[in-house]
Design brief:
The chain is of the alpha+beta class. It has a domain of 164 residues: EvaA sugar 2,3-dehydratase subunit (Nucleoside Triphosphate Pyrophosphohydrolase, Alpha-Beta Complex). Helix content is 21%, strand content 34%. The chain is built from eleven helices and 25 strands. Strands 7, 8, 9, 10, 11, 12 and 13 form a seven-stranded mixed β-sheet that branches. Strands 19, 20, 21, 22, 23, 24 and 25 form a seven-stranded mixed β-sheet that branches. Strands 1, 2, 15, 16, 17 and 18 form a six-stranded antiparallel β-sheet that branches. A hairpin with a 6-residue loop joins strand 4 and strand 5. The radius of gyration is 22 Å and the shape is globular. It comes from Streptomyces curacoi.
């Protein structure tokens, strides 16, 4: 087994924002902790043929790939028909993980400053191996110990009543293009007592955790979705409103001050009308019967080489509940682009939200970013607004970072996350599937499940870092 390269640590030290809320001592403590975690992290991930994955089997009748225990997840087929978008019908593999996992963050106040208990977590699909994860990040199969490994640390704070003050507890979806109706319980629990940080864990100020979102590949997807679900007024910022039109407009957008172009009733009506306007049917089908997909002992791929593949890996990871295991992973072809166009309207920043159908979503449609795509998958031409966000001038680029997606199910999946300020000529009137919404309105919707998709939630967390 090999350790992570030290270059990741030195890069982090150089990238930490100079205006960090942390004191110099606290900042140095975090860097030292992350360096020690990186030096101690032992991880080896090797590709393996799908047919040789231990404890995984192709079903003789359907060709579906599943764990022999019947737990964890399975790779199945899906047939899709829709009136939405340029492609009316297609088939694809999809990950079926019906159980509900827990993404839980412990928080506590230290001298009036909210801190989050994060962990340095390794996943087999992480391109850089180690990322900042929530306190608990576990599927039901894992925390019920189907694998017969160690128990999940700090789980009791999220499963036992009275273990703390619950600030967030909501079911949210994950990638609707790759998961079939997958949901996780996003939770934030505040504790008053002293909870020691175990090895590989660190109490980090909330404001600093948000600022670390500026660093490529550091804060994982599960942390981002939990942070997005935390209402802005739970821990009000102690700093004054920043100077500058865009900065002030973003503060008003996030805190619910000022006037929104569309009130909440109008936003919900727009969304319901968008759902009603389009049709989508998605039916599970045997994996072996998928037109356009080819299966070999090594992997499952699309015949045109685009979209994604299903590959197998053997993972050896130190300090996990199980030290070694095999599993399939979804391997995307190309880096995606996820972007919000932001326009200041009457002094308040508005995000251009897209009503997006995805076949794996429980309700078919959720609110997504302005742009969400892998450009290589669109040979017929770029999706709407893609060229606009990719050609934005440096002055209009409010946020830009390459962030990773779920490393427990996806292999080296990364997206360029962008927040782009609209120029004066960008119209207020937008196509029917789009709507101007404030950040505060989206956060209010996140009190409920299945309104805002995971990519938009990640961008909301990125907006908090700005």
């Amino acid at each position: 087994m090999v350790s992570l390269p030290a270059g990741q640590v030195s890069g982090l030290a150089r990238a930490l924002p100079p205006e960090s809320y942390l004191s110099d001592v606290a900042g140095a403590e975090f860097i030292d902790w992350f360096a020690r975690c990186s030096a101690a992290a032992q991880c080896r991930v090797t590709r393996a043929p799908l047919t040789e994955l231990r404890q995984w089997r192709f079903d003789a009748d359907t060709g579906n790939l599943a764990h022999e225990s019947g737990a964890f997840f399975a790779v199945e087929g899906l047939r899709v028909r829709t009136s939405y978008g340029p492609v009316p019908e297609w088939s694809q593999p999809i990950i079926n993980q019906p159980e509900i996992g827990i993404l839980g963050m412990l928080v506590k106040e230290v001298d009036g400053v909210p801190h989050c208990l994060v962990q340095a977590k390794i996943e087999p699909g992480n391109h850089n191996r180690i990322q900042l994860s929530p306190t608990v990040q576990a599927t039901r199969s894992n925390y019920t110990r189907i694998h017969q490994g160690r128990s999940t640390r700090y789980l009791e704070f999220f499963t036992k009543a009275g273990a703390g003050r619950t600030l967030v507890d909501v079911l949210q979806s994950e990638q609707g293009a790759w998961f079939l109706r997958k949901r996780n319980r996003n939770m934030v629990v505040q504790v008053a007592e002293d909870v020691p940080a175990a090895k590989g864990y660190h109490w980090l100020p909330l404001t600093e955790l948000r600022r670390l979102l500026r660093i490529d590949g550091l804060v994982n997807m599960d942390t981002r979705t939990v942070l997005a679900c935390l209402p802005a007024d739970t821990f009000p910022a102690s700093r004054p409103v920043p100077v500058g039109d865009v900065a002030a407009a973003l503060v008003l957008s996030s805190t619910g001050q000022g006037t929104s172009l569309n009130d909440m009733g109008a936003v919900l009506r727009w969304f319901t009308e968008a759902k009603s306007r389009h049709q989508l049917t998605a039916h599970r089908t045997p994996l072996r019967d998928l037109p356009g997909w080819r299966g070999t002992p090594e992997q499952i791929t699309h015949e045109d080489g685009r979209h994604f593949s299903i590959i197998g890996v053997t993972a050896q990871v130190g300090d996990r509940e199980v030290a070694e295991w095999d599993q399939p992973l979804l391997f995307p072809k190309g880096r995606g682009v996820v972007a919000f166009v932001i326009k200041v309207i009457e002094g308040v920043a508005h995000l251009l939200v897209h009503a997006r159908f995805q076949p794996g979503l429980l309700d078919g449609m959720e609110m997504g970013p302005t742009v969400q795509c892998v450009p290589e998958n669109y040979p017929q031409g770029p999706p709407r607004f893609l060229d606009y966000v990719l050609t934005a001038s440096r002055e209009r680029l409010l946020y830009s970072a390459v962030l990773a997606e779920e490393g427990g199910r996806f292999y080296h999946s990364q997206n360029s996350y962008l927040l782009v300020e609209a120029d004066d000529d960008f119209p207020v009137a937008v196509p029917d599937d789009y709507c101007w919404v404030t950040a505060h309105q989206l956060t209010r919707l996140l009190r409920h499940g299945y309104y805002v998709n995971v990519e938009a939630r990640s961008l909301l967390a990125c907006l908090q870092s700005w």
